[in-house]
Amino acid sequence: MLAVSPSVVAYTFGVNMALTLVEQALIRPSGLNGGTNDYSADDLRYVVSQFQVDLPIYLDDFPEKGNINLHTYALETATGKQFLLQKVNSSVFTRPARVMDSMGACLDAQRRNLEAGAFWEPIELVPTRDGKSNFAISDEHGWSVWRLMHRIQRVVSFKSLAEVPADRRMFVAEQVGAGLAQFGDLTADMPVDLPSPLPGYRRTDIYFRQLDAALDDLRDPLEAAPYMPETEELREACGPHFFVKASPEVAAERQERARPWINFLQEHRPQAMRLYEALSAGKVRRTMIHGDTKIENFLFCQETLRVKALVDLDTIVSSTWLADYGDMVRSLVNVAGEKEPDLDRVQVNTEVYDAVQRGFLSAAPGITDAERALMHDAVISITMELGTRFLTDYLRGDTYFGVPASDPELNLTRAAVQLTLADRLMQIQK
Question: What is the DSSP string of 224-258?
Answer without folding.
Answer: -GGGS-SSHHHHHHHGGGGS--S-HHHHHHHHHHT
